[in-house]
Write a structure and sequence with these properties.
Blueprint: H1 2-20, E1 26-42, E2 51-69, E3 74-84, E4 89-93, E5 96-115, E6 120-139, E7 145-164, E8 169-180, E9 184-196
Antiparallel strand pairs: 1-2, 1-9, 2-3, 3-5, 4-5, 5-6, 6-7, 7-8, 8-9
Length: 197
């Protein structure tokens, strides 16, 4: 019986190593950087008109996920991410000045990919996102200040292309848009690198 254990263990280990080295298959982690644009509309107490403005700035995202090749050309997967870096938005309506400061964001999405070549996958991504927003409304005529700090949920949709540089390393470019509950939207373009186990 002992003669069976070592060869069997070695075979399973080699099989697991080979499976983990396959592009677009298995667990991965990565990070990316790029740009974002956040649009914000904010109702102001006592004002008929909303504060409406946008701001563009640096954005970053770290992520981890799992992919499964369900056929020769089709990949399904799930991914979780944490992001930040979005620029503060400032606007003015008459005697009111509004500042919106985006904080950390989180997302949980599903991916569906198609292998255009053995090394190039085109994919779509969709799911849930949440981001923190701190808001300050300051009335210059009487120095009154209204502050709020809350997490806002949204729906995220994205399109991207991922290229397997090797069995373990991939690079990707992706555009995504998040429509948050309320009056905020985020557009983002990121270039990322991922390591696959």
């Amino acid at each position: 019986m002992k003669f069976w254990i070592s060869p069997l263990a070695a075979t399973l280990a080699l099989g697991a190593t080979a499976a983990s080295a396959e592009p677009f298959q298995g667990f991965h982690v990565g990070a990316g950087i790029g740009g974002s644009k956040i649009q914000s509309e904010d109702a102001i107490p006592g004002f008929a008109r909303k504060a409406d403005n946008d701001a563009s700035g640096l954005a970053y995202r770290a992520f981890a996920g799992y992919d499964l090749r369900v056929s020769e050309r089709v990949v399904i997967g799930a991914e979780a991410g944490i992001s930040g870096g979005d620029k503060k938005i400032e606007s003015r309506v008459d005697a009111a000045r509004v500042k919106v400061d985006p904080g950390l964001g989180y997302d949980l999405t599903a991916r569906l990919g198609f292998l255009a070549t053995d090394n190039l996958m085109l994919y779509g991504r969709a799911g849930w996102a949440r981001q923190n927003f701190e808001r300050e409304i300051r009335f210059t005529n009487n120095a009154a200040v209204i502050r709020s700090d809350k997490d806002v949920d949204g729906k995220l949709f994205g399109l991207g292309a991922e290229y397997a540089v090797s069995d373990n390393i991939a690079v990707r470019a992706e555009y995504d848009r998040t429509d948050f509950d309320g009056d905020r939207k985020r557009d983002r373009l990121l270039v990322s690198a991922a390591y696959r186990f």
